[in-house]
Amino acid sequence: MSSIVIGVTLGDPGGIGPELAARVADDPPAGVSPLLFGTEAALEQGAVRAGIDAAALADRLRPCPGPSDVPVGEPSRAAGECALEAIRTAVECAQRREIAALVTAPICKASFALAGVDHPGHTELLAKLCGADRVGMVFVAQGLRVALLTTHISVAEVPERVSKGSVLGCIRLLHGALESEFGERDVPIRVAGLNPHLGERGLFGREEIDSIAPAVEAARNQGIQASGPDRIEEVLAPSGVGTPLRGVVALYHDQALAPLKMIHGLDMVNVTVGLPIVRTSPDHGTAFELVGSGRASVAGMSLAMEWAKRLHRVREARRAGRERAGHGTGNLAQ
Description:
Blueprint: E1 4-9, H1 17-26, E2 32-38, H2 40-50, E3 61-63, H3 77-95, E4 101-104, H4 109-114, H5 122-130, E5 136-141, E6 144-148, H6 158-161, H7 164-180, E7 189-192, H8 207-221, E8 226-230, H9 232-235, E9 246-250, H10 253-264, E10 269-273, E11 279-282, H11 299-324
Parallel strand pairs: 1-2, 1-4, 2-3, 4-11, 6-9, 7-8, 7-9
Antiparallel strand pairs: 5-6, 5-10, 10-11
Helix pairs in contact: 1-2, 7-8
């Protein structure tokens, strides 16, 4: 099977993104032809830090506008501007199907803010650029597909975002994405509770009673294998090889990410579901303290590319099925 072209943004130029992107471009996974998005200066600096000849990667770069003088190891407006332009350009290429999927290196949300970007992270920005009404952040780890009800908000705001409608919407989004984007059918979905001891029958909060349990019941009435509310340590318990796949709805960012990162480390990928394009990313950040140290692992980026390839194949199989049924054709980025 021929290689597919996967776009890779360089991320925040002041972080480890450029050097990791240079490394995956120099030694990509089988069946993948990477196309990098960022400034020439960022790629050159990243290649130097990775010990790679930047000239050898020149034909793999789609240059994007942005400042060439970017502070390293800290947030900056210049870094935010570079990262934004790379994402915009890559999304446009994905929408034209010039690339089969998009893998994003980490950005710094503080750099985004300094650059005046009115979105706290990739997920929200990609939804805006793609005109997607309902997107979700789903983390993929061994035996788990974990969706977040809320993403980049204060913990203090979480309870007011937990309603029967919002929880049901997240369950339905995950259920639909597992079938249509992952090609995984009949996956049970467990929903986490919010309060200590699941609220202890309302003693420590009523979200489980008033919002989560009714949402689970409504999902079950719609034919979804949903259950909960359950304790987070139960729904995220490590899965062994051969254990049935399960979906999880967690209610806020660190409820899921803290235990997941402790258990799975870099063996986890972030997937944005609900987009018209495939987007994945590693589950780590810019790691300013590791820039140029040689200690930043490329494992997360490589795994994100493997998942991007896999999810692209699922979409192409569905597209081929529609075309056989007479619903049109399209250019393939391969």
